[in-house]
Amino acid sequence: MPETGKSMTTRTVKANFVSEARFMRKFEDPLASNKKKRFVDLSGVLKKEAVAIRKIESIGVGVTAEAQKIFDAFSKTHRVKWDNKDIVINEDVRISSPYHSDCVIGGARNASDRIKKVLKNVRAKLQLSSDT
């Protein structure tokens, strides 16, 4: 094995291309030879996992590109999630397909009206088809 800090080249070969294999010599385990203990920052790993999960959950399945753009715009200022093909905002307001202001349902009246107003602005900013 190369010394610490030295590079090493490895190649991957399909097994059906190998016609012969010979044992040449035994290598030392490079991790066993290093006396330092290795630690994993568990909190850092958990944070990265949470970020990855949020990214995956922010992708709508079976939705149009227009719907995904609207979701992404709302996600910058609101807590949003997908519920099948509906966008759920702040756990109580729902926007259903085709994602126009008349498709906003649920929540308190003022919250619903606010989401309708934001949706109109988002559609205008993204230059999507006119909101009805």
The secondary-structure element order is HHHEEEEH
Helix content: 25-40%
**Cα Rg:** 26 Å
| Strand percentage | 5-15%
Task: Specify the biggest β-sheet.
Answer: 4 strands, antiparallel
Main sheet strand line-up: 1-2-3-4
Number of strands: 4
Number of helices: 4
- Rounded to the nearest angstrom, the distance between the terminal CA atoms is 68 Å
Protein architecture, described:
36% of the residues lie in helices and 10% in strands. With 132 residues, it is of the alpha+beta class. Strands 1-2-3-4 form a 4-stranded antiparallel sheet, covered by helices on one side. 11% of the residues are buried.
Summarize the structure.
The protein is α+β, with helices and mostly antiparallel strands and 132 residues long.
Question: Which structural traits does this protein have?
Answer:
single chain; 132 residues; alpha+beta; 4-stranded antiparallel sheet
